[in-house]
Amino acid sequence: MKVRFWGVRGSIPTPWKEAMDVGGNTSCVQVIPSTDTLIILDAGTGIRLLGNEMVRNKRAQNLTGHVFLSHTHWDHIQGFPFFSPAFIANNHFKVYGASKAEERLEDVLKGQMNYQYFPVQLDQMGARIDFIELQEETIELEPGLRISSCAFNHPGGVYGFRIEHEGHSVVYATDMEYTLESLDPRLVEFAKGCDLFIYDSQYTPDELQSKTGWGHSTHTAAAQIAAMAGVKRLMLYHHDPLHSDQMLIQMESEAQAIFPESHLARESLEIDLSTL
């Protein structure tokens, strides 16, 4: 199983030169099992790059893809209207996300493509798109390929995802706010022993003091949680739009002092879990 990062930034795309080495597109991660099943975690602006590459490589037709949304804040869905394979007939996408009492998942995605904001409506995209509202559950996408969802702390709610296949596992846990004092023990259990732990590291501890309640963690908390969970590698993720490459490298170094296998999630980085 491989993991590729298409968007690593949080809150808003960040196209300034001091941040482009790490990357400026918002949240999107591809999980690539040996079966080549298309699994996409979040649909921030990074999903546009994924779609464009699929078209270039002639892998964007007659396919079924699974898009798992951690939540529907804008930086996690804003790339979907620009995802080229969703405009191709005979493609089939299943979009998974939290069930909300006040609004259906489908309506949220349709809303950002209202004619007042975007020239093409969701039902004009071309591909068949099904919306599947998740609970805390485990889904088997195909024999031996499982993805589990678990709810955590973020304004409006958020799901973490754990994908397991052929003895390897990756946990995607973005947009959640925890310190050691407020830590949900279910998060440690959810991430326990995974090969790759992708965790929200948007703030420094000093920044968090003025942004408590905004729904994001720190790089030091990420390293502490990774150590507690016994993961193989931590990927610091959902970088703040104000953080330059230089600042992120410093944060990476500080996290490594706590958990040596801490690394920055960088746009276009691909990791083969079998090598960890």
Textual characterization of the structure:
Helices cover 21% and strands 28% of the residues. The model has no long low-confidence stretch (mean pLDDT 96). It has helices at 46-56, 105-111, 185-191, 205-211, 219-229, 245-258; strands at 2-7, 28-32, 38-41, 64-68, 92-98, 128-134, 138-142, 145-152, 158-165, 168-173, 196-200, 233-237, 262-264, 270-272. It is α/β, with parallel strands linked by helices.
Task: Provide a concise account of the structure shown.
The protein has helices at 46-56, 105-111, 185-191, 205-211, 219-229, 245-258; strands at residues 2-7, 28-32, 38-41, 64-68, 92-98, 128-134, 138-142, 145-152, 158-165, 168-173, 196-200, 233-237, 262-264, 270-272. With 276 residues, the protein is an alpha/beta fold. Strands 6-5-4-3-2-1-14 form a seven-stranded mixed β-sheet. The chain has a seven-stranded mixed β-sheet with strand order 7-8-9-10-11-12-13, covered by helices on one side.
Uncertain regions spanning at least 5 consecutive residues: none
Task: Choose one word for the global shape.
Answer: globular
Largest sheet: 7 strands, mixed
Write down how many β-strands occur, each being a DSSP E stretch of 2 or more residues: 14
Query: CATH first level: which class?
Result: Alpha Beta
The name CATH uses for the topology is: Metallo-beta-lactamase, Chain A
CATH homologous superfamily identity: Ribonuclease Z/Hydroxyacylglutathione hydrolase-like
Classify the secondary structure makeup into a structural class: alpha/beta
Number of domain modules: 1
Q: Percent range for helical residues?
A: 10-25%
Mean pLDDT: 96
Distance between the ends: 11 Å
What's the SSE pattern? EEEHEEHEEEEEHEHHEHEE
Per CATH, which architecture? 4-Layer Sandwich
Work out the helix count: 6
Strand order, biggest sheet? Answer: 6-5-4-3-2-1-14
